[in-house]
Amino acid sequence: MSATMPDTPRGGVTTPAGGNGREPLIRLEGIHKWFGNLHVLKGIDTQLLPGEVLVLIGPSGSGKSTLLRCTNLLEEPTLGHVWFEGRDLTDIRTNLNEVRTRIGIVFQAFNLFPHKTALQNITLALEKVLRVDAKEARDRAMEQLSRVGLAEKADSYPGQLSGGQQQRVAIARALAMKPKLMLFDEVTSALDPELVGEVLAVMRQLAEEGMTMMVVTHEMGFAREVGNRMLFMADGIVMEEGDPREMFRNPQHERTKKFLSQIL
User: With helix as H, strand as E and coil as C, how does the chain read?
Assistant: First the structure.
C-alpha cells in the first residue's frame, strides 16, 4: 500500500509461533486500521502455524474483531500486509474471492437464510461458489451436519432450530468449503448460557482434529483449555502474548491483570 507509516509506536510485536521450522499458514505484518480519525489497530504483527489455535481476548473496543476481519480482508487494513499460504492478500492482484473459499468465518449472528433448510443453507455456497454438483454438495453438507451433531435437522428451517443449533449449522456451512483456516468472532456471545456449551464443544473438536483457528472470545475456560497461544489486546495493540494457561496463572502486564481480575 502506498500510504506512509505514521510515527506511532508499533503494538503487538510478537515472537514467531512455534520455532520448529514450519511455515506460518497466515502472517499479519504491521496491521493498522483507521475508521475516519479513530485508530483502531496500531501496528499488529502476529502469525498462525498450521494446526494452531490463537485466542484473542480483551475489553470491548480493543480491536479484536477488527483484527480478525482484517485476516481475510473483510476489513481492509489501512496499512500493513496479510500473507496467507505465502500470498499477499493486500496485493490488489490477489483474487480475494478465491482465497476466501479457503478461510471460513463464523460470526456472532448466524446469517442463515430463513427460507432455506439447514441442508440448503450449506449446499447453496458449494453449488454457487465452488460449482460443486448437487449430489456432491448434498453429501458434503450432510457430512458436516453430522460432524456438528445435526444430521437429523437437515430438513429443518432456521426458525425451527435453537440458537445453538443455528450456530452449529453456520459452522457446518463454513466447514463444507474445506477451509484451511477458521475464524470465529464471538460466536457464543448471542446465545443463551445453556446453549454455549454445544457450540464450544464443536470448536473444541475442530481444534483436536488439527484445524487452524483464530478465535475472538469472552469464554475464558475455552481460551485456557483449547488455545495454544493467546493475545490480550487493549487500545489497538497487543499488550501481552503467551501460553493461555500461563497468562491466566501469571499475567505480566498490569492491563492484563486488571482485565482478568474483573472477569474471572
Answer: CCCCCCCCCCCCCCCCCCCCCCCCCEEEEEEEEEECCEEEEEEEEEEECCCCEEEEECCCCCCHHHHHHHHCCCCCCCEEEEEECCEECCCCCCCHHHHHCCEEEECCCCCCCCCCCHHHHHHHHHHHCCCCCHHHHHHHHHHHHHHCCCHHHCCCCHHHCCHHHHHHHHHHHHHCCCCCEEEEECCCCCCCHHHHHHHHHHHHHHHHCCCEEEEECCCHHHHHHHCCEEEEEECCEEEEEECHHHHHHCCCCHHHHHHHHHHC
